[in-house]
UniProtKB/TrEMBL annotation:
Pfam families given in the database record: C8 (PF08742), TIL_OTOGL_Mucin (PF25962)
Keyword Disulfide bond tagged: yes
Listed GO CC annotations: extracellular matrix; extracellular space
Residue ranges of every copy of the VWF/SSPO/Zonadhesin-like cysteine-rich domain listed in the record: 1-43
Record SMART domains: C8 (SM00832)
Protein name: VWF/SSPO/Zonadhesin-like cysteine-rich domain-containing protein
Keyword Transmembrane assigned: no
């Protein structure tokens, strides 16, 4: 895969990560989740969103597009949406809802 996706423009790692992300997105669009990132290969730094000492935000290769929020307490989508790669809050049981305004888990 590395040889097939090698690029001469920009940083090779950046180009590889872009190509691999595009491939994973197409798979996700067809209902197949590809967990390809690691801490050493094209990492996604979700810790940026965590408060000091907190650990709510985590990377998910195919996270749920709808989650329990103050505006959507059921966590259900009106339409079927594919899972999206990104950083997602992992809200604990005592604070099960995610507040989009405060960007943190609340009760």
């Amino acid at each position: 895969v590395t040889d097939a996706c090698a690029c001469d423009t920009g940083g090779d790692c950046e180009c590889f990560c872009t190509a691999a992300a595009a491939y994973a997105k197409v798979c996700s669009d067809h209902g197949v989740c590809v967990s390809w990132r690691t801490p050493s290969i094209c990492p996604m730094f979700c810790d940026y969103y965590n408060n000091e000492g907190g650990c709510e935000w985590h990377y998910k290769p195919c996270g749920a597009p709808c989650m329990k929020t103050c505006r959507n307490p059921s966590g259900r989508c009106a339409y079927h949406l594919p899972g999206l790669e990104g950083c997602y809050p992992n809200c604990p049981g005592d604070r099960p809802y995610f507040s989009e305004e405060e960007m943190k888990c609340v009760s």
